[in-house]
Amino acid sequence: MKAVQIPKLRDSLAPLFGSYRADLYQADRVEELAVPLIESLNPYVDLWLSETQSLIDEVTRVKALVDKIDSDKKPFWASFTLEDSEPTSEPLLRSGETVVDAVKAMHAIGVSAILFNCSQPEIIGEAIQVTQKTLASLNAQSIQIGAYANAFPPQPKNATANDGLDELRADLTPPAYLTWVKQWQKDGATLIGGCCGIGPEHIAAISAYCETK
User: Which residues does the record give as Zn(2+) binding sites (predicted)?
Assistant: First the structure.
């Protein structure tokens, strides 16, 4: 009998204290909660994705723990969710920290990619532009940029992800979402997909477009 080889996977490390809620963050509990997840998943993954992160410190602490545990030094991607409940003068994380500061911090800890997810495509577009400029100023263009927006209306500051059903934006049809994808690519994004409310039909439109390029 032939041995079955288990394929390795890309692992998502979700926010430890809830999506969107930087105010619930407890720095002194990160190691307690993250280490069992990292140790359990480490043998089976080929890439770490710390996603839907609302603040810089959680990603920094989780990356440090991954570095201690993962002797293979697999790539580490960081994906942030952005403040989209009200207009801001520049793209911000939901913690209020700037995207510029987040990019500089991620460069300092050696991530392979910086992404933005579970936010409005409009603000993600602004964040990509800021990220591209900041990475260029750091001479760090080897760090990839990515995006996967959601289809929710703007979320209030006290929102709790997965606490119930959310309305979806009727205007974010597959062709409309593809328009954002094209702009993200133009601005430097190379890792593109969809988050909550972006369905298979949206991904099919992206795939069809990419096949023509």
Answer: 118, 195-196
Which of 138, 155, 35, 24 has the alpha carbon at shortest distance from 83? 155
Q: Decide if 4 is inside a domain.
A: no
Q: Which two tokens stand for residue 98?
A: 């700037």
Lowest mean pLDDT among 2-11, 14-23, 94-103: 2-11
pLDDT in tens, 74-104: 999 999 999 998 888 999 999 999 999 999 9
Q: Residue count of the chain, please give it.
A: 213
Residue 210 is labelled as binding a ligand: no
Q: pTM for the full model? A: 0.90
CA distance 199 to 145: 22
Domain count, the chain: 1
Tokens, residue 207: 């795939």
- For residue 36, the one-letter residue type is P
